[in-house]
Amino acid sequence: MDDKTLVAAAFEAREHAYTPYSHWAVGAALLTSDGTVYGGCNIENAAYTPSNCAERTAFFRALYDGHRSFEAIAVVGGPEGQEAPDFCAPCGVCRQVMREFCSLDDFRIILGRSDGQMRTYTLRELLPESFGPENLA
Ligand code: THU
Q: What is the pLDDT of residues 6-17, one digit of tens each?
């Protein structure tokens, strides 16, 4: 699957966002090593802290189904009901969730915009000097 297709899947996932508080809608599309794509959206809550980001929704759906190996995630976000004119980078908590299951140098994080621009990072670039499972081994 090419990056453009994965970003398109993230835009589709964004349509499912539940964002009555921030009005900031995010979509993610997570590509597993066997080629399966899981969409995720942010899901907010009146108590605020139970809100879940798009990236973690995608990861938790895939993890529940037994996937443990991941290639890439595409992320798009912007004001609800509008296009996504800027890149929307994953929050720190989502980066740490990626760190649990993904290779620092091989897992790719692809940010997309409505104008078709894309920017790609490795997990190590977005989460340098990190703490992960092997630190506790
Ligand atoms: N959000 C995500 O879902 N992913 C990101 O990459 C950044 C932020 C959500 C959390 C919250 O629902 C809204 O965007 C505003 O922070």
A: 999 999 999 999
6 close to ligand 1 (CB < 6 Angstrom): no
Q: Is 55 a catalytic residue?
A: yes
99-110 pLDDT tens trace: 999 999 999 999
Alpha helices in the chain (DSSP H): 3-14, 54-64, 92-101, 123-126
Residue 17 to residue 107: CA distance in whole angstroms: 24
Q: In sequence order, what DSSP letters do the residues of 98-119 get, joined into one string?
A: HHHHS-TTT-EEEEE-TTS-EE
> Could you tell me if 71 and 32 are in contact, meaning their C-beta atoms sit under 8 angstroms apart?
yes
Query: Which residue in this structure is represented by tokens 């140098």?
Result: 105
